[in-house]
């Protein structure tokens, strides 16, 4: 937040999951006290599928790491690197099947939290 472009931005949105270390209004208040133009937005609860890294890790877990029968860390490393190369060639887009209610609830939270209001050029952030 001390570097450009964040330092001079009118608003900076921080999007975080619901980890206990930065969940709830206390976390939002702490962030706002330190950086008044920062706005904390939490992803919907039970929406780890929004995080592409978590999706990739779950694929590795299901397709490579279970069962965990590697004889050494070197073998694990080789297997992970080989899987990465294979997956880059065979991966295809996901078909999302998440219920629309999750997005509706999240959108309502954004609107009622005031995060989507237009900026008023006559007021401070």
Radius of gyration: 20 Å
Please, how many helices? Answer: 4
What gross morphology would you assign? Answer: elongated
- Secondary-structure element pattern, one letter each: EHEHHH
Number of strands: 2
Task: Estimate the mean pLDDT confidence.
Answer: 79
Low-confidence parts, pLDDT < 50 over ≥5 residues? none
What is the terminal separation in angstroms? 15 Å
Strand % is 5-15%
Largest sheet: 2 strands, parallel
Strand order of the largest sheet: 1-2
**Helix content estimate:** 40-55%
Structural class: mainly alpha
Folded structure, characterized:
The chain is elongated and about 50 Å long. The chain has helices spanning 24-34, 52-65, 73-90, 100-112; strands at residues 12-16, 38-42. It starts with 11 loop residues before the first strand and ends in a 13-residue tail after the last helix. The protein contains four helices and two strands; from the N terminus they run βαβααα. With 125 residues, it is mainly alpha-helical.
């Amino acid at each position: 937040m001390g570097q450009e472009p964040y330092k001079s931005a009118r608003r900076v949105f921080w999007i975080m999951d619901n980890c206990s270390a930065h969940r709830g209004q206390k976390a939002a208040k702490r962030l706002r006290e330190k950086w008044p133009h920062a706005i904390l937005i939490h992803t919907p609860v039970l929406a780890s599928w929004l995080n592409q890294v978590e999706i990739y890790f779950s694929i590795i877990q299901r397709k490579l790491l279970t069962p965990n029968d590697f004889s050494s860390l070197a073998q694990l490393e080789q297997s992970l690197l080989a899987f990465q190369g294979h997956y880059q060639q065979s991966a295809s887009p996901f078909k999302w099947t998440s219920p629309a209610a999750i997005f509706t609830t999240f959108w309502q939270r954004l609107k009622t939290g005031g995060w989507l209001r237009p900026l008023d050029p006559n007021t401070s952030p």
